[in-house]
Amino acid sequence: MTTDDTVEAKPARTVKCVVWDLDHTLWQGVLLEDGDVPLRPGVREVIEELDRRGILQSVASRNDGEAATRALERHALLDYFLYPQINWNAKSSSVREIAAALNLGLDAFAFVDDDPFERGEVAHEIPELLVLDAAEATGLPQRTEFTPRFVTDDSAKRRAMYRADQVRGEVEREYTGPKEEFLATLDMTFTIAPAAEEDLRRAEELTVRTNQLNTTGYTYSYEELDAFRKSPDHELLVARLTDRYGPYGTIGLVLIERGSDTWEIKLLLMSCRVMSRGVGGVLITYLRQRAKDAGVRLVAEFVPNGRNRMMFVTYKFSQFRETGRDGNLVRLEADLTEVPPFPAYMKVSVPAGTGGDR
Amino acid sequence: MADTKQTIRDFLAQFFGDHQLADDEDIFATGFVNSLFVMQLVLFVENEFSMTIADEDLEMANFRTVSAIEALVARKHTTVVS
Prior knowledge:
The structure holds 2 protein chains of 2 kinds.
Chain A: E1 17-20, H1 31-34, H2 43-52, E2 56-62, H3 65-74, E3 85-87, H4 91-102, E4 109-113, H5 116-125, E5 130-133, H6 153-174, H7 179-185, E6 188-194, H8 200-209, H9 222-230, E7 234-243, E8 246-258, E9 262-270, H10 280-294, E10 297-302, H11 309-317, E11 320-326, E12 329-334, E13 346-349
Parallel strand pairs in A: 1-2, 1-4, 2-3, 4-5, 6-13, 9-10
Antiparallel strand pairs in A: 6-7, 7-8, 8-9, 10-12, 11-12
Chain B: H1 2-16, H2 35-48, H3 60-63, H4 66-81
Helix pairs in contact in B: 1-2, 1-4
């Protein structure tokens, strides 16, 4: 169980995004000299396989933007790459751009280039990056760093979800009105449902991948989650979000332990991808309403990990007060006198008969 | 401390658009908490006024209005000086 982000506790590296060079790496030859550049053998298969595993991909190439984009289109590969950086800047700065756009840490990135100079520059500027020679490209799927612990339905859709994020981001930047009005234009539907068996892989994956929007950092195995799902003393809920640009997939998870007079929130987490959507408080509001209807106390645990302060603030502003500390662990209890309605800028769908008709 | 209030109003303007917040107007009128907004608000106060907000001060009451935020800032700065 990992509840903090110290170096010692760091799990084995898993690459979440691969950044490809183009000339002599993705394809043979130099585009601006040779014009017609066939793909290097095996590269297409690698790109398709990484995509299936939910590993994102991008491009950092010193090239002419238009010519390179056309060449990628000809090879029917353009769609695989998010935020491609085709310019004359240092490749380290291109990699940083991609990481910032995707909101992922640089230690989750790999960079593939045939040129030792470029590899050296990037490795020097970003030491935490995994830097690989193009000669190793076809072996990527065999490496452990490129073998995620989980390949779920959401994995194969991850690229499409990030692509939709890219469109949302562009629309959001152009929108100048108040934030809540913008959120209202998204037509969001937030669905809370009991976890089904087919949700468990993704639920397990969420407990492992989510640091920032995670109240306790407790991780549970598939089997443990399945037991909670069937236990009469527990409730395991998943949350999904969709908007006009498409589904975000399963982005939230809650585990409650239900005693006769007290319900305890053991775990409450949200994917970072929905951080800007203002949905963090929805699950908490829902739980407060449920507890109020059931006439029970609602308590929660919080374990700080240096990155999850947002969840503590959300609890505190949602009328939870501190009732005690146990080492690192903070105990909180909710005041259920007044439970606010769900935000007007989204539709919230909850399990039948559990306080959603407000 | 008119400047403090203006700084706070300028920050809030990006969330409330053209709506001019009065000093005692409830920022959380609906009662619903948007996690990202409250975090941005807390970080803004900490960075802008060079202070750390302790866990016990992370209460909606301290952030509910422009005046309340100003009072929190003033209280913290007094504590540091004395």
